[in-house]
Amino acid sequence: MNIPYGRQNITDEDIKSVIETLQSDYLTQGPKILEFEQAFAKYVGAKYAVANANGTAALHLCAMALDVKEGQKVITTPITFAASANCVRYCGGEVVFGDIDPETYLLDINSVRKLLEASPKGTYQGIIPVDFAGRAVDLEAYKKLADEYGLWIIEDACHAPGGYFTDSKGQQQNCGNGNFAELAIFSFHPVKHIACGEGGMITTNDEALYKKLLKLRTHGIVKSDDLYTNSIAFAGGDDKYPLWYMEMQDLGYNYRLTDFQAALGLSQLSRANAGIDRRRQIAATYFEAFNGKNYIQGQSGVVEGHAYHLYIIEIEDRLGLYNYLREQGIYAQIHYIPCHLMPYYRQFGWKEGDRPFSEAYYKQCISLPMYPTLSEAQQEFVIASIDQFHAAKK
């Protein structure tokens, strides 16, 4: 019995959708892209969505769209995949890491506020909070802080399609709905909620940013008469621009998604709610099994609005448990090595002890199998194996 920490679920309907698209006239830049974008925007409650190559590309596009420049400072969390920080470096900006709240594992807003208060206004340009493991950041609170200091927000919601938090008025705020962050990004990597093989999505309520993103994801090229800056005569037309004409107006990238990936995403999206429901059932079972156990230092728990990309427990002998589970065919994972202590970021002066809560979390965290097709028997085996490991240590 091999049980990974996460896995895709490809159904006959998914396969049918992809085959139909492969047999159509378009493999890329066709109608499925817009269909997927519109459906995803509706799903999260945003006005606009821009499909792209992957979550990293989505972050890079966002940083470019917000004009991150050489030397500008942006705050993010150390407990995230490196792309949340790297997108700032791609544009020449400087990454400053806050610390996490040890109870939620999310970027601690008090840590961010301390950073902002310690420097003159204008020192920082933006914040990239992460809905880590699927737990939604309270973006209402972050928006208030960002407005106070004139900052933008990119919500890294790669772990949290279908997740939400409840605002101060008691209203549900979906991850990526654009009500508090200028931009939000999602990933369609195979272990995520919606699998496209690779793929990403940006959502926003800002029309100007939306149009800028569309341009940047395709080499900075536009193909629209009302956007051209060169003359009709230069373009080779008579009284109007010829149909072949296009202009590269910015330095963009080829960050497009294919039509057959979009078709797979659309099919997966159609059962996204059922997937979230199952993830929450699995989380509840883990919580009940581990609640009150003396070897558990912390766990993801049962949290309203949590999308449960990951279910995390904290234990003292993390290495021992990790190796024991692998012997049982259970392939747990670690999320994440603190980003500020990666060799690349150490060169900028980051060192052990700089972010104590993040570093303490890393020493004990382990992500357990969490995906909708995880069976009850498999989950029981995971739980029993963890109990057996700790019973043997007594």
UniProtKB/TrEMBL annotation:
Instruction: Kindly list the positions at which N6-(pyridoxal phosphate)lysine occurs in this protein.
Output: K192
Set out the biological process GO terms recorded for this chain's protein: polysaccharide biosynthetic process
Recorded GO MF terms: pyridoxal phosphate binding; transaminase activity
Q: Where is the active site?
A: K192
| Transmembrane intervals | none
Key words of the record? Pyridoxal phosphate
NCBIfam families xrefs: PseC
PANTHER family with a match to the protein in the record: DTDP-4-AMINO-4,6-DIDEOXYGALACTOSE TRANSAMINASE, TRANSAMINASE
**Family of this protein:** Belongs to the DegT/DnrJ/EryC1 family.
Q: What is this protein called?
A: UDP-4-amino-4, 6-dideoxy-N-acetyl-beta-L-altrosamine transaminase
